[in-house]
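Before a computer can learn anything about folding, someone has to put a protein's shape into writing. The outcome of that step, for a single protein, is printed below:
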Amino acid sequence: MEQIIPVWVINLKKRPDRLQKVGSRLDELGIIWERIEAIDGQTCEEYLLKNTAKNGEIGPLSDNTRACSASHYIFWKNLANDASLFGVVLEDDVELSDDFKELICNVNWIPENTNIIKLEKFLPNKVSKVLLGGVVSNALNSTRQVHRMFSRHTGAAAYLMSKNGAKNALNWDLPFTVPVDHLLFNETVSKLSSSLRPFILVPPIAWQSVEIGQGSNIDDSNRMHLSKAKKIFRSIKRAFYEAKLLPKQLFLLFTRAAIIKKIFPK
C-alpha cells in the first residue's frame, strides 16, 4: 500500500523518549512521517505564544497550553504549504491501531468538503457519550464510520485536516482564547470549530497513552493556582457556554438528525 496522506508528529526537544516510542511504532507500520519541533512554553520567547491569549472563555491558559496551540499552528502552516490535500498530525504520546497505515493510503473514505476529522478517542479508558450525526462515509472495509460531531469531544492527539481546513484555521482572528483541542472540537466555546464542522472516526484509530507519554507536559494548565471562588466561577462559565448549544442539540435529537452514541474504550 502506498501512503498518500502525509503524517506529522509534534514533539518537544526535551522528550526524545516519546519520539523514540511513537517513531518506532510508525516505522513498524511502514509509515513515512516528519517531526515538528514543539514549542516549549517553559523556555520559549513570549512572542511565540502570541497566537493564544492568557485568559479565555473556559479559564486561564498556561504558557504550556498556549505553546501546544502554537505547535499545532505550525502543522497547519506545513499542510497549507504542502502539495497534499490532506494531512494527519499526531502528538507524541499517541498509540495507534494496527490498521492506521491502511487509513492513510486511501482518501475515498474522507467525506466531500471535509475540513477536519478527529481520529482519536479522548479518555481512552472510559466510555464517552457524544452527539453524532448519521454515517456519512465508511472506512477500512466498513469497520469504522465517519460521523459529524455535534457535541464537545476534546483532545487533539490525532486528527486529519484538509488543506482548506488548515487555511481556515490560519486565517482565523487571533488570539485564540481556548486550548487547541477545544478550539477544534468544542463548538460551545469556539466559532472556529463551528466553521470547521468537525467529523469523528468511530471506532477511533488512535488514543493518548500514559505508557508512551509518561506524564503530560501541559498538566499545569489544569492545576493553576485558583481560589475556590474562581474555580466555582470558572465552572459556571463553562456550564453557560455548554448551555448555549443545547437548543440546537435538542432539535437535532428531536428530529433524529443526530443521536447520542457511546464511544467505547480501546
